């Protein structure tokens, strides 16, 4: 038996090329299907806006595809694992490799190495491309697919409180005193918490103090009457620094920028549980690709003629999808404070790593 973790160079390259080809093929297939389904549900909203056409649809596709890649790349690795290992088993290539003295871990080593490379590429892609695309797409959706906002410092769906009152904005661009809100709504509430007045404006700028609503429409709840107002200053207690804190979206910030935002939150005593969980998950999420060959490895072994190959493939797929379910549930619990952030992000990975190793060792080693 070989003492090296990897098999021969020729066999390693052969298995790695086979695996990466199937990952790309499955990913392209998933992207085509999911993007078509997404367009069926969204194209009507985009084209309903006057002036939008094929160019806006292509823009939506270019912004949506990075999100789909980030979400479904681990699924692609899982399905590619099953396709690769089932094929090797059916062609008796696994039997030949084990007859040559390779252990189960050595057979899987090229796949694990390829999955680790995919995880590194996935992390880089998420932080350099997906975060920017998500930021732009969220801001565009906040304007109901109207004018595409500029890419620089655009944030969406901000809610701020001024005592009992609430100020919301569909999107915010700029920084400091130069902040500009778009799609603004001001809710004035009574001491009992009931909304007594609503003011909508297409734009708001900082008035030092307060925010100037331009071309606003005021609606009085008491008499159900509305009136046009040229200018109105609201939210005297809301400052640009509060907006900077309220506008932190972990899905739109790269790993290193999110670290700075968490540090600023902790300096002023703000709750950072959700941000910490997302911060850790930016590492554990891409690394889940490394788990897929281990969880799907049950499909590689056993005699193909025994009639249990299909059952083994189903078990491998079930283990892989169970990981994604548990991972999402743990992250949700971490966001609500039920789990510590580190545990919410890493517990599913460690748990299923042990499950995969246990199954592999007890059945094949």
Tell me about this structure.
- This protein is an alpha+beta fold.
- It folds into two domains: 9-144 and 273-364, no CATH class; 164-236, Lipopolysaccharide (LPS) transport protein A like domain (lipopolysaccharide transport protein A fold), CATH 2.60.450.
- The chain is built from nine helices and six strands; from the N terminus they run ααααββββββααααα.
- It has helices spanning 9-47, 54-90, 93-99, 104-142, 240-246, 255-267, 273-295, 309-335, 341-364, and strands spanning 155-162, 165-173, 180-189, 195-206, 211-220, 225-234.
- It has a six-stranded antiparallel sheet with strand order 1-2-3-4-5-6.
- Helix 2 (54-90) crosses helix 7 and helix 7 (273-295) packs antiparallel against helix 8 (309-335).
- The longest helix has 39 residues, at 9-47.
- It is elongated.
Quick summary of this structure?
The protein is α+β, with helices and mostly antiparallel strands and 365 residues long.
Tell me the total number of β-strands.
6
Whole-number radius of gyration? 26 Å
Discrete helix count: 9
Determine the fraction of residues in helical runs and give it as a percent range. 55-70%
The assembly state of the depicted protein chains is single chain
Proportion of beta-strand residues: 15-25%
> Which class do the helix and strand fractions yield?
alpha+beta
Count of the domains? 2
Major sheet: order of its strands? 1-2-3-4-5-6
Please describe the biggest sheet, giving its number of strands, its sense, and whether it closes into a barrel.
Answer: 6 strands, antiparallel
Averaged pLDDT: 84
* Amino- and carboxy-terminal Cα gap: 12 Å
Outline the low-pLDDT stretches: none
Q: What is the 3D shape?
A: elongated
Task: Provide the succession of SSEs.
Answer: HHHHEEEEEEHHHHH
Protein name: LPS export ABC transporter permease LptG
Subcellular location: Cell membrane
Transmembrane segments: 20-40, 68-87, 107-125, 283-303, 309-326, 338-356
Membrane topology: Multi-pass membrane protein
